Amino acid sequence: MQKRVIILGATGSIGISATNCIRRFPEKFKIVGMSTYGNIELLEKLIKEFNPEAICIGNETKAEEEKRKFSHNLAVFNGDSGLEKLVNEMDFDILLNALVGAVGLRATVAALNKKKKVALANKESLVIGGEYINKILKEKGGELIPVDSEHSAIMQCLNGRDIKDVSSIILTASGGPFRILELEKYKNIKPQDALNHPTWNMGKKITIDCATLVNKGFEVIEAHYLFGISYDKLRVLIHPQSIVHSMVEFHDGAILAQMGIPDMELPIQYALSYPQRLPIAGKRLNLAQLEKLSFFEPDFKRFPCLKLTIDAGKTGGTMPVVLNAANEIAVDAFLNNKISFNMIGELIKIACDEHTPVFADSLEIIERIDLETRKKVLARIIN
Length: 383
Hints:
Layout: E1 3-8, H1 13-24, E2 29-36, H2 40-50, E3 54-57, H3 60-70, E4 75-78, H4 79-89, E5 94-97, H5 105-113, E6 117-120, H6 123-140, E7 143-146, H7 149-158, E8 166-173, H8 191-194, H9 204-212, H10 214-227, E9 234-238, E10 244-250, E11 255-259, H11 265-273, H12 304-315, H13 319-335, H14 341-353, H15 363-382
Parallel strand pairs: 1-2, 1-5, 2-3, 3-4, 5-6, 6-7, 8-9
Antiparallel strand pairs: 8-10, 10-11
Helix pairs in contact: 4-5, 5-6, 6-10, 6-13, 9-13, 10-12, 12-14, 13-14, 13-15
């Protein structure tokens, strides 16, 4: 039976890869809804190709223009609230949430409240709302399938195995563009330097998060909630080749690894088709051509944001909310040349040090703390 799919963030790197996957199997998947913030040119091409029933445009001015253009044959939602309305009002089977930032949380919650399958690429949903989302899953059902290559790898390695048999889960990280840069040069890093990721092609915000390793800390928090495993069993290793996407170590000493070329279409397609595994033609990993696979412990002096993020996850409650909000504001400021690269971590640390966490068990609490933190960090940047 053909599955009805909504893609939030359809014009981003994950969304574009997802449309490639769906083109392969038009008999299995039908895009019925999609969103973009403001890439109208690409959105219009996707509308003409996939003929969705509804769209959401984050930029409200551009949304009004599209309403006049397409109002005769599809519903047009707008703004951050439109994302939630799109999910609530549409009939669908799978939500692919590829939004970037805390804005993705409400859409994830709305889909799970409808007991739908969520293919989750929006890290922040679990980072800031993991406790709340797990509560919804327990009470109402729904299904959460990871899209991140690391968590997809973990899920594939675990496949049917008892989590009680797991000794540790090892998440790999490329180390980004500054893995071997001298520490004294960090203060001179420019946005264009940080956006030059060695192995992955991603959006600006997540690329900066990969350079600071905040992104990997987020993935540790995600793994904690996705697989119900304690933080003391979650490890990070730097793996520059980005071939081993993650590993699971069992209590008998066996380690299972999922390997492949750095290409997001595999985990995206696996999330859409799970538990079925559909074919992908094209380039394959050639083990005979690999010169080496190397792994290193992360250097917290080089990547202080990684430790800050993991510590926030361990603290729990609203602490990850604060860390994420501070990071989003700091990264935006760095990209706009308002602060230095090193200041990203400094602003995160100040925000976390000043916060007394409470339970993050409702959207109201999460969003209130998120907004308060953004205002405080922004004021510190301006002043």
